[in-house]
Amino acid sequence: GRGARRVRELELVMARFDGGLRTRMRFRHPADVAGTALLTIDHDEGEDEQWLHLPALGRTARIRGGGRARSFLGSDLSFADLSRREPGEWIAEVRDRDATVDGTPAWHLALRPRDAEVREATGYARAELWVAKESLLVLRSKGWMEGGHVKYVMAEDVARVDGVWVARRLVARTVRAGEVESETVLERRALRFDDPSVTEGLFVPAALCGEITTATAEAIF
């Protein structure tokens, strides 16, 4: 609200394994957040996991329940936003089968949490998504939260990199009463896919206190 700006650099590694998707991110700069790491394991079946390592405290803790709705390191993205949406947790309806986002054909979907547990864990009372028909990327989302806040997330600079559709820029804004309270921009500076050095050993809680080098990063923000 005062126009303050913070810039942070992080590395992000993602891999699909039998049974789900695993994501690990680690902050590199500035010094006050360097070494902070988050591991997300999205299981195809069973409860998903998130683990946060805080080097200043020398501990790694699991994020559970309503804690996932909290802001991730002061950004406009929550821990839940950094996890894959589970279709079974939402009741969805198609609002428009022929919507467009900046000229891109998309489906417009309306979602509401299946139960109070999902609502508490995600922080959303309801949401709307615009999903690209070709890439299946979520190009736009709008989520209604507690306290009258509305969160908008926009995918920008969408392109194919090594045959994979990616959004090289994500913008998240938190709005209340029509006023933008804060904004987070994620820019992917470099991308690399099919790196053989990305192994399952990187995606365990005990590994969060270790280094992630550029050589092992599948995708670097």
Report on this structure.
The strands form two sheets. A seven-stranded antiparallel sheet has the order 5-4-3-2-1-14-13, with no helix packed on it. It is mainly β and 221 residues long. The two termini are 25 Å apart. The protein has one helix at 116-122, and strands at residues 9-17, 20-29, 37-43, 49-54, 59-62, 90-101, 104-113, 124-132, 138-145, 149-161, 164-176, 179-187, 190-191, 219-220. It is globular, with a radius of gyration of 17 Å. A hairpin with a 5-residue loop joins strand 8 (124-132) and strand 9 (138-145). The chain is built from one helix and 14 strands; from the N terminus they run βββββββαβββββββ.
Q: How confident is the prediction overall: mean pLDDT?
A: 88
Overall form: globular
Characterize the main sheet: 7 strands, antiparallel
Distance between the termini: 25 Å
Write the layout of secondary structure elements.
Blueprint: E1 9-17, E2 20-29, E3 37-43, E4 49-54, E5 59-62, E6 90-101, E7 104-113, H1 116-122, E8 124-132, E9 138-145, E10 149-161, E11 164-176, E12 179-187, E13 190-191, E14 219-220
Antiparallel strand pairs: 1-2, 1-14, 2-3, 3-4, 4-5, 6-7, 7-8, 8-9, 9-10, 10-11, 11-12, 13-14
Keywords summarizing the entry:
globular, 221 residues, 7-stranded antiparallel beta sheet, mainly beta, 1 helix, single chain, disordered C terminus
Brief write-up:
By secondary structure, this protein is mainly β.
